[in-house]
Design goal:
The chain is of the alpha/beta class. The chain has two domains: 5-220, Rossmann fold (3-Layer(aba) Sandwich), CATH 3.40.50; 232-338, CobW-like, C-terminal domain (Hypothetical Protein Yjia, Chain: A,domain 2, 2-Layer Sandwich). The protein is 35% helix and 22% strand.
């Protein structure tokens, strides 16, 4: 996890942001992407679409020129076509640099309904060439208000899609009654209590909710860091279904050494990497004036970013974990054993 936080922070704004739009079958991903692309502010977007079956994309999306779109039309984006995703992103950048396609300033990846977004996220983290050109901006997960209650109980994929989201968008909310919608919202909060949630009708939602999420979170808007982190104990729920997904937070009042923090995470990822669905947090590192922003997916972590100042008077280390079958006590005991004492 070693990196030069200052250099990483300075380069962040120059990288092309990548948004992953995911959600279970029928959630309305293509409708949302179509609505976004029709907005003037989104006229320089490269779209990578993966669809199962022979028809690669619906008629609405075909309206847009091939220069705006690279289509992966067989297999699954998150596994079978993972290598092709890397090749496509590299090829897009080369063609952009050579003037063969539009000078796009954003990439949107629309996954299949059965996709696990974690490998896509990992691709952006691990490929050294991609890291020099792209940055993961956010994972937007769409949830079908009509069918999601059953899907979240029956299938594991939508549970993980919700757990890994930076933003949750509930679609078809106008087709369900008030109480079932409230019950679904509570269910989503159990799985991922810290992802902001909005309802969308016919794919319409404010653009600011979906773009430049990572940039605000790690660089520009310190208040966004505080909202994103959120460590309210009353919102810490373990999910009771399917994959045993649970979210919890650890807090450390005293500064810790960067070596102690990285040792804890190295041990945790080595032992339980596949079940460590996501980690986000602010770390108070000894000898630094601002916090270190860290986030990872399973066994892979973004380069850490050092903020110039704390977003509030609270200077405690706060770490949010989304895990599958890893209790809070196990992680807390590991930090205590290695030397980060006083968590709660």
């Amino acid at each position: 996890m070693e990196a030069n936080p200052a250099a990483t922070r300075d380069a962040l704004a120059g990288l092309i942001p990548v948004s992953i739009v995911t959600g279970f079958l029928g959630a309305g991903k293509t409708t949302l992407v179509n609505r976004l692309l029709k907005r003037p502010e989104m006229n320089r977007v490269a779209v990578i679409v993966n669809e199962l079956g022979e028809i690669g994309v619906d008629n609405d999306l075909i309206e847009f020129s091939s220069e705006q779109m690279m289509l992966l039309n067989n297999g699954c984006l998150c596994c079978v076509l993972r290598g092709d995703l890397q090749e496509t992103l590299r090829d897009l950048f080369v063609k952009r640099r050579n003037g063969e396609i539009i000078d796009y300033d954003r990439v949107v990846i629309e996954t299949t309904g059965l996709a696990d977004p974690a490998p896509v996220m990992q691709t952006l983290l691990t490929d050294s060439l991609l890291r020099d050109q792209y940055r993961l901006d956010c994972v937007v997960t769409l949830v079908d208000a009509v069918n999601a209650p059953g899907q979240l109980t029956e299938f594991s994929e939508p549970v993980k899609q919700v757990a890994l989201a930076d933003r949750l968008v509930v679609t078809k909310s106008d087709l369900v009654a008030k109480q079932p919608l409230a019950d679904l919202t509570e269910r989503l909060r159990e799985i991922n209590p810290r992802a902001p949630l909005r309802n969308a009708t016919d794919g319409e939602i404010e653009l600011a909710f979906l773009v430049d999420v990572g940039l605000r979170r790690t660089h520009a808007d310190l208040e966004e860091v505080e909202r994103w982190l959120g460590t309210d104990e009353e919102h810490e729920h373990g999910h009771r279904h399917d994959e045993n997904v649970q979210t919890f937070a650890l807090r450390f009042e005293q500064p810790m050494s960067w070596a102690a923090f990285t040792q804890c995470m190295d041990v945790l990822t080595a032992l339980r990497g596949p079940d460590l669905l996501r980690v986000k947090g602010l770390v108070n590192v000894e000898g630094r004036s601002g916090p270190m922003v860290v986030q990872g997916v399973q066994h892979l972590f973004h380069p850490p970013l050092e903020l110039a100042a704390w977003p509030s008077a609270d200077r405690s280390t706060r770490l949010v974990f989304i895990t599958r079958g890893i209790p809070k006590e196990v992680v807390a005991d590991l930090f205590a054993a290695i030397g980060a004492i006083g968590s709660r």
